[in-house]
Design goal:
Helix content: 40-55%
Number of helices: 9
Order of helices and strands: EEHHHHEHEHEHEHEEH
CATH superfamily of the largest domain: HAD superfamily/HAD-like
Strand content: 5-15%
CATH class of the largest domain: Alpha Beta
CATH topology of the largest domain: Rossmann fold
Largest sheet: 6 strands, parallel
Number of domains: 2
Length: 225
């Protein structure tokens, strides 16, 4: 079986930080907590329910299931309507994907749901590079669960031990580890190098096109290749 390179989307292929924060501000305002202070870095690294719970907890508030559901719906509705307008590719992404496509199966495994992920990739004009796009669809577990990674590999007919996941968060690295994939940290993304101090990824990339340079080094560490 061949090798697959799977990518996170936000913070790895595309810089969508401001879009995400705009959507978060809108959702908080709609549920009556527009003045709530939060850590922008953590907010881009967590699922929405965790972001709401952790920030309200600082004020002694436990959100109800109904409030959490409304918050997520407001976020997603705004993000679908407005949040994709400011997404931009990181420099070097198209060139890296074009190079890797000549050797490996490529996929996306993202916290976004599949329809939204496909829309963003088409908008960015890189959708054609990928053999499969896997979002965290209803009923699926968010990272650090490896579910969306393993589902991607199942569809691509690739083994975890011969595959690689590239992401910009500790949850991405943990998901790769839990699924048996090699883990590559995109330190140019939302988190930065310090964010990965305790995560111990197999490689760290300071820019997307470094994947071209370390491709052979990565392959040497994959069993059976």
């Amino acid at each position: 079986m061949g090798t697959a390179f799977l990518f996170d989307l936000d913070g790895t292929l595309a810089d969508s930080r401001q879009c995400l924060l705009n959507s978060l501000d809108h959702a908080l305002d709609k549920i009556g907590y527009g003045d709530l202070a939060y850590d922008p870095l953590k907010a881009t690294q967590q699922d929405l329910a965790t972001t709401l719970r952790s920030n309200l907890a600082k004020h002694g508030i436990v959100p109800t299931e109904t409030l959490t559901k409304e918050f997520i719906e407001y976020f997603r509705d705004f993000h679908e309507r407005e949040g994709e307008s400011c997404v931009e590719l990181y420099p070097g992404v198209p060139e890296s994907l074009e190079f890797l496509k000549g050797f490996f199966s490529l996929g996306v495994a993202t916290t976004k749901d599949s329809p939204q992920a496909n829309r963003v990739l088409k908008k960015l004009k890189i959708h054609h590079f990928f053999d499969h796009v896997q979002g965290t669809d209803p009923g699926m577990q968010y990272k650090p669960s490896p579910e969306i990674l393993l589902r991607s590999l199942e569809i691509l007919s690739r083994e975890p031990k011969r595959s690689v996941y590239i992401g910009d968060s500790v949850h991405d690295i943990e998901a790769a580890r839990a699924g048996g994939l090699k883990a590559v940290a995109a330190v140019y993304g939302f988190g930065g190098k310090e964010h990965f101090r305790s995560a111990t990824p197999d490689w760290m990339l300071s820019r997307p096109d470094e994947l071209i340079l370390v491709k052979d080094e990565i392959l040497k560490k994959l069993p059976g290749l």
